[in-house]
Amino acid sequence: MAPQWMVTDMSTALGNVHLALFCSLFRKSLFLVGVLLFPVLFTAAAAFAAEPFCDAIACVMSTALFLRFTPRLIAKYCAQPNPQSQPAPAGERC
After folding, report:
1. Is 32 domain-assigned?
2. pLDDT at residue 3, as a whole number
């Protein structure tokens, strides 16, 4: 769950609440579907396996979204002027 939380917190901090909301709701809805379907497809005890299974899928999805959207978010964040900061020395990036 750590990558999922990292992507959610990072995208919230950078102002992309839609991505954070999607990651959170995706994990929770996937878990709900897993809890309802695992006992039907397997045994009642399989409902306990829904959480790690859904967390693994959410981790892969969040990591993929992180790798896709983070460069754009950081570029957008760095492009915004900050009147309180000093200009960066030549050759330094945001």
Report:
1. yes
2. 80
- The residue length of the chain stands at 94
C-beta atoms surrounding 40 within 10 Å = 10
Biggest CA-to-CA distance, the chain: 63
Please tell me the distance from the alpha carbon of residue 70 to that of residue 44, in angstroms, as a whole number: 40
Helices 2-13 & 50-79 angle (0-180, nearest 10): 30
What is the per-residue pLDDT across 4-54, written as a single tens digit (0 to 9) for each?
888 888 888 878 888 889 989 999 999 999 999 999 999 888 889 999 999
**Is 70 inside a domain boundary?**
yes
- Report if residue 38 sits inside a domain: yes
Domain that holds residue 18: 2-79
Overall number of domains in the chain: 1
Contact of 63 with 3, CB cutoff 8 Å: yes
